Amino acid sequence: MKWSNILKVALNSILRHRMRSVLTMLGIIIGVGAVIIMVSIGQGVQKQVESQIAGLGSNVLMIFPSATNQGGVSQAAGSRDVLTLDDVDKIKRDATLTANVSPIVRASAQTIGGIGNWSTTIQGVYASYLDIRDWQLATGEFFTDRDLSVRAKVCVIGKTVADNLFPGTDPVGEQLRIRSVPFKIVGVLTEKGQGANGQDQDDIVLAPATTVLDRLSGRRFIQQIVTSSISADQMQAAQVELTTLLREAHHIRPGDDDDFMIRSQTEIADAAASTTQVLTMFLASIAGVSLVVGGIGIMNIMLVSVTERTREIGIRMAIGARSSDVLIQFLVESVVLSVFGGIMGIVLGLGGAELISLVGNMATALNPPVIIAAFIFSAAIGIFFGFYPARKAAALKPIDALRYE
Amino acid sequence: MASEETISNSEAAGAPVIETRNLEKVYSNGEVEVRALRGVDLRIDRGEFVAIMGASGSGKSTLMNILGCLDLPTGGEYLLDGVRVNTLNKNELADIRNAKIGFIFQGFNLLARTSALENVELPLLYNRTRGNVDTSKLAHAALERVGLGERVDHVPSQLSGGQQQRVAIARALVNSPSLILADEPTGNLDSRTSVDVMSLFRELNDQGITIVLVTHEPDIADFTKRIVDVRDGMIRRDVMVANRRDPQVTLRELDRELAGEEDGH
To answer: Structural domain of residue A232, as residue ranges?
Structure first.
C-alpha cells in the first residue's frame, strides 16, 4: 500500500470520528501545552534571576567580614568589624587588577523632605559606586571625590524615595533631612527594579561614605566593600590579589584564616541558576507526567477503537488489506492524532505562556528546543502507545473479524 | 512470484476459475473434532453463475470461506484461477482476495460514515499489482455500472438496503476480479429489492463475470444457471437450472401485482 494511500485511509478514519479524535488528542494537547507553559515559566524565572544578578554590575567582587567564632559562639558572617575605609583606600591605591572600588556603609534611617517622611536605607559609598553597579542617574549628578574628602552633606536618592517624597516634582536641589541632618539632593537614580532577593533596589539614598560614617553611623567600620575587576578573565586573579592586600592590611599571619571573605557575582549567579534549573526541571517533570497520561489516553482509545472497529478491520482484510496494512493504518492514526495533538498543544502552550506573562505578571521565556522536543516526544508517544492496539488489530483473523458483532 | 506466471498461463489455457479436489476442513476444538467439509470436488468455469445451497451447518459457509481465501482447507487442494491456494501465506492470501475475488456480504459490510465512492475505492487502495491508477475514476465507473452514478457522495446511512448492496457490488467489481463471491446477498433485502439485485447479477454475468452465490432461498437460486447442494460437508447435488427465472420478468410480475392491489383499493 502506498504511503499516500495509508495516510488517506488514516485521515479519513480520524475525520469520520471527529469527537473521538478530539477527545483522544486532548490528553496530548494538555500534556504538551503544560510542558511548554511550565518550562516557559521556569525559564522566565531563570532569566529574571539572571538579569537581576547581572544588575549587580559586571565583574563585581564583594568583600564581607567573615564569620567569626568568639568563645565558641559563632557570629553571623558579615557582622564582624574588620573592614575600614583604610582597606578601601589601600585597594584603591595598590590593586592592579581592580578597576573600581567602593565601600558600603549601611544605616537605616527616617528621612524627612518634600511632602512627608520615609523610612529607607542609607548607603555610604564612593563616587565610583555607580560604575561598579552599572547604575545611571535619571537627573542631576553624582557626588564627587571632593564631596567625599570634605564630608559634604549631599545625597542621591532612588526612584522609590523620589516617588514617595517628591511626587511629580524634580527633587534635585531639594533638602532631605536624614536623622535631622540636612542633606542636599544632587541627583536621582534610574529605576533598577527588584533585586535578586526581591528587595526594592530603588528604596535607597546614596551619600558619601565619609559623611555617613561621620554623621549617621558614628563608627569606623564598614559593612562591605565592592570592587569591579578590570575584566571578566581577571576575576580570579583579582580575587587573589585582593586577598593578599587585605591579609597584609589586617596583619594576618601565614596559616591563619582570613577575617574577610570575597564573593564574586558569578558564584551568586551560579547558585541562583542551579536553583532555578531545579525549579524548571521540577515543573517540566510534572508536566511530563501529564504527557505520559495523555499517551496512555491514546492507547486506551485506540484499544477501544480496535474492538469497536473489528468489523471494519474484517472488511478491509476481506477486500485485500494485509496485516501490515492494518498495523500501519492504526499506527499512522495514532501518530497523526498525537502529532496533531502536539501541534495544538504547542499552540496552547505558547498562548498560555503569553497569557500568564500578561495576566499573572510573570516573566515567561520561550524555549525552541523544548517546543521541538515536546513535539517529537508526542509523535513518539503516538508510536509507542499506538503499537500495541495496532498489533492487536493486525493479528485479527479476517473471518473472525468479519463475523464479529 | 511464480504464481503470477501460473495465473496468466492458466488464463490463456482457459483453466477453471475454481477447482477443488477432495477439499476437507476439520475444526478441532481440543478433543472434539468437527469435520465441516468431507471431500468436496467442485469445478466452476469462467462465466458461470452458480448458487451454493444448503441448510445452516451444512458446511456451505466453510466452503464459502475457503473459496474466498478467508480460510485455508485442512486437506485436499484448492486452485483459484490456476493458483494453488493451500500453500499461500497470509500476505499472498490478502493479495489474492484483493485482486481475484470480489466479496458481497449479507450485511453489505460497507464502512459507515464513508461515502459510496470511498467505499468503492477501498480495494484499489490495497491493490499492489497495479501502478498508478485514478482510483476515483475507476470507482466512479464501477458505481455507474451498478446504476448509482448519481449517488457517489452518499454515505451508507443515506442509502436504502438495495442501494447499499449495489455499492457493495460496485466495490466487488472495481478491481476486475476473476470471481464474485456473494454470501447471502439478498438475505437482508425485501423480495422486490432481492430480485432487483439478482437482476444486476444476471446483467454482470451476461457480461462474462463469474458469480458464485451462497443462498438458502430456492427462489433466488433459480435465477442462477447452476445449483450446488451442500449437506453434511459434501456435495449432494450439482445440477444445471432447468427453468431459469428471468429477473426482468419477475420484476414486471411484481409491478403488475402491486398495480392490481392498488386498483383493488
So the answer is: 81-258
Q: Are A9 and A327 in contact (CB under 8 A)?
A: no
User: What SS3 state is found at A110?
Assistant: strand
Assess contact for B122 and A319: CB atoms under 8 A. Answer: yes
B74-80 mean pLDDT: 93
A1 neighbourhood in chain B, CB within 8 Å = 125-126, 128
Q: What are phi and psi of A140, to 5 degrees?
A: 75, -160
Residue that terminates a domain, selected from A258, A285, A301: A258
Question: Tens digits of per-residue pLDDT, B98-152?
Answer: 999 999 998 889 988 889 999 999 999 888 877 778 889 999 999 999 999 899 9
List residues of B whose CB lies inside 8 A of any A CB. Answer: 65, 68, 70-71, 90-91, 94-95, 97-99, 103, 105, 109-114, 118, 122-123, 125-128, 171, 175
Q: Give B219→chain A minimum CA distance, Å.
A: 26
Most confidently modeled range among A89-93, A330-334, B49-53, B213-217? B49-53
Q: Is A387 found in the same domain as A286?
A: yes
Burial class (CB in 10 A: 0-12, 13-18, 19+), B261: exposed
Q: Do A99 and A245 lie in a common domain? A: yes
Q: Are residues A335 and A215 in the same domain?
A: no
Angle, alpha carbons A15-B127-A321 (nearest 5°): 60
Q: Is A158 exposed, middle or buried (0-12, 13-18, 19+ CB in 10 A)?
A: buried
Report which residue type is found at B4. Answer: E
Question: 3-class SS at A315?
Answer: helix
With a CB cutoff of 8 Å and minimum separation 6, the contacts of B111 are A312, A315, B118, B119, B122, B156
d(CA A3, CA A379): 17
Closest alpha carbon to A119 in A188, A152, A186, A165: A165
State which of A363-367, A368-372, B6-10 shows the largest mean pLDDT.
Answer: A368-372
Task: Tell me whether residue A355 is in a domain.
Answer: yes
Total number of domains constituting chain A? 2
A324 vs B contacts (CB less than 8 Å): 91
Residues A309-360: pLDDT tens digits?
898 899 999 999 999 989 998 888 888 888 889 999 999 999 998 888 888 7
Global pTM exceeds 0.95: no
The domain segmentation of chain B, as residue ranges, is 47-74+86-264
Mutate to test the interface with A, among B27, B126, B167 (most CBs of A within 10 A): B126
> Which CATH number is correct for B47-74+86-264, 2.60.120.260, 3.40.50.1110, 3.40.50.300, 3.75.10.10?
3.40.50.300
- CA-to-CA distance for A353 and A41, rounded, in angstroms? 7
Nearest C-alpha neighbor of A313 from the set A296, A328, A295:
A328
What is the C-alpha to C-alpha distance for residues B117 and A80, in angstroms, rounded to an integer? 90
* Residue A278 shares a structural domain with residue A188: no
C-alpha–C-alpha distance, residues B170 and A74, integer Å: 94
Q: Are A324 and B68 in contact (CB < 8 Å)?
A: no
